[in-house]
Amino acid sequence: MDNRNHTSWVTEFTLLGLTNDPMTELILFVFFLVVYIVTLLGNSLMIITITFSSTLQSPMYFFLRSLSMIDISFTSSTVPKLLLDFISEVKRISFTGCVAQLYFFIAFGGIECVLLAAMAGDRYVAICMPLRYKEVMSWRVCMALTVICWIIGLLNSLAHTVFTFSLPFCKSKAINHFFCDIPPLLSLSCADTRSNELVVYFAGGSVILGSFCITLLSYIFIVTTIIKIKTSSGRLKAFSTCASHLTVVTLFFGTILYTYIRPTSTYSLDQDRVVPVLYGIIIPMLNPIIYSFRNKEAQGAIRKVILRKKSGLY
C-alpha cells in the first residue's frame, strides 16, 4: 500500500510527556506553572521597563526588549499544553495543533538564535567601535536587524514544518516527547527520512551554526579589544557590558546545538526530551534575571517602574 496516504489518516497524536507517574506529574505541574508565571512576569516587566524608561533607550535594550517578547512567545508555544497534559489522563494533540506547535516552537527558537547574534554584533560595535556606535547602530539599523531575525526564523521554520509533515506517519501515533518536535516525529515515519535530516542540517544548521559563528567571531574581536585596554578597571567595565549576553548565549546555543546538530542515529528520545526543557522553558525564565542581575541601570529602571505602578501612574 502507498505510504504517502498514511499521513492523511492521522488526525491526532498522543504525547507521552515527561513521566507517567501521577505524583511526579503533579509535582512537575506545580514546578512548570511557577516557571511559566515567573517567565511571563519577568519578561513582561523587562518589556514595560524598557518601553517606559528614558534611560534604557539604547540599541542594547531595544534588542533586549525584543528578546523578552520572543521568550514569552517561545515558552508559550509548549508550556500551556504541557500544563494541560499534566492534569489530563490522555495527552492528545490534533494533527493541526501538532503542526502549529512545531512551527511556532522552531520559529521563535530560530528568531532567538539570530537575535542573539545581532546582540553580539551590537556588543562588538559598542566595545570595538565606541566612537561610531551611535552612527553604526542607528534605530533604522536596529529595526532592519530585527525584521531580518523574524524573516529568517519564520522561513526556516516553514521549511522544517513542510518537510516534516509531508512524511507518512504509519509506525505509531505516540510521540515520545512532551511536545511536537522534529526528532520524535521523524522516528514515527515509515519513509526514508534522510532528506529531512539534510533539511535539519542545512536549513536549521545554517540558522543555528551561522548565528553561533557570528556570535563567536564577535566575541573573539571583543576579547582581543578588551585585552588591549591598559587598566584592569577598564577591562572589567568593558567585559561587564557583555557578560550577561555571553552567559545567555552559552546556555542557549549549548543546549540547542546538542539537540539538532547531530545524526538521528545518536538520538535517545527518552533522554533528549529533557534537553528542550532547558532552552525552551528554563532559559526564557532566566534571561531577564541574568540581564538585570549585574546591571544597575536596569535594576534602577525596574524599581522606578514598580514604584510608579504602585502609585497608580500606569
TrEMBL record:
Q: Read off the CDD domains from this record.
A: 7tmA_OR (cd13954)
- GO function terms (MF aspect): G protein-coupled receptor activity; olfactory receptor activity
**G-protein coupled receptors family 1 profile domain residues:** 42-291
Entry-linked PROSITE patterns: G_PROTEIN_RECEP_F1_2
**Gene3D superfamilies (alphabetical):** Rhodopsin 7-helix transmembrane proteins
Q: What is this protein called?
A: G-protein coupled receptors family 1 profile domain-containing protein
- Protein's UniProt keywords contain Glycoprotein: no
The alphabetized UniProt keywords are: Cell membrane, G-protein coupled receptor, Membrane, Olfaction, Receptor, Sensory transduction, Transducer, Transmembrane, Transmembrane helix
Coiled-coil regions, chain positions: none
- Topology of this chain in the membrane: Multi-pass membrane protein
InterPro entries, per this entry?
A: GPCR_Rhodpsn, GPCR_Rhodpsn_7TM, Olfact_rcpt, Olfactory_GPCR
Organism this protein belongs to: Xenopus laevis (African clawed frog)
Location(s), subcellular: Cell membrane
One GO CC annotation, please? Answer: plasma membrane
Where are its TM segments located?
A: 26-50, 62-80, 100-120, 141-159, 198-227, 239-261, 273-293
The protein's matches in Pfam families, at most eight in alphabetical order, are given as: 7tm_4
